[in-house]
From TrEMBL:
Organism (species): Paracoccus salipaludis
Initiator Rep protein WH1 domain residues: 34-166
GO biological-process terms attached to the record: DNA replication initiation
Name by which UniProt lists this protein: RepB family plasmid replication initiator protein
InterPro entries: Initiator_Rep_WH1 (IPR000525)
GO molecular function, one term: DNA-directed DNA polymerase activity
Family: Belongs to the initiator RepB protein family.
């Protein structure tokens, strides 16, 4: 296990920060970069997963928790659909010159929005990170610690990507 996961697990108590693997923060390996709203959702998902981001487990949060965050749009189940589609379409490429090989994969394997109890306001959002992202997070020994509210208040996807890169 890389140091990034240890740092993310140690900072799980701090809801104001997100620990992001440096490989993702730099954005060097990402194609089809998601929109601003999808990037904000990605940060929230990684922050929610914390030290478990490299585990092949279902991560989840409630839609009501997303709505409570200042700087996130007032989402409903339909507004989340295109954001998850964008995150699913993002392509990660990792080139390992030592092994003389590169790997292509994705950030997100599957997302499920369970709206069976929508009338009571209990919508559950769950997801599995893609194998490529999990492997990258597990091997990562470098990380960026980002202030969540700063990310949620930035006004363009380029400002979020630049903030990640500089961090």
């Amino acid at each position: 296990m890389g140091k990034t996961l240890q740092v993310a697990a140690d900072r799980a108590y701090d809801q104001s920060k997100t620990v992001l693997p440096a490989e993702v923060a730099r954005g060097v390996y990402m194609r089809n970069a998601p929109s601003l709203r999808a990037l904000k959702l990605m940060h929230l998902m990684i922050s929610t997963a914390g030290g478990r981001m490299a585990q092949d487990v279902r991560h989840e949060m409630r839609l009501s928790d997303i709505r409570r965050i200042e700087g996130m749009a007032h989402h409903d189940r339909e507004s989340l659909k295109p954001l998850f589609e964008e995150l699913r379409a993002a392509v990660l490429t990792y080139d390992d010159p030592q092994a003389m090989r590169y790997t292509i994969g994705g950030l997100l394997d599957q997302a499920v929005v369970d709206y069976r109890h929508e009338l009571s306001g209990d919508v559950l959002v769950s997801w599995f990170f893609g194998r490529m992202f999990r492997d990258m997070a597990e091997r990562s020994n470098h990380w960026a610690i980002l202030d969540r509210q700063t990310v949620f208040h930035l006004g363009s996807k380029y400002s979020v990507l630049l903030f990640q890169h500089i961090a």
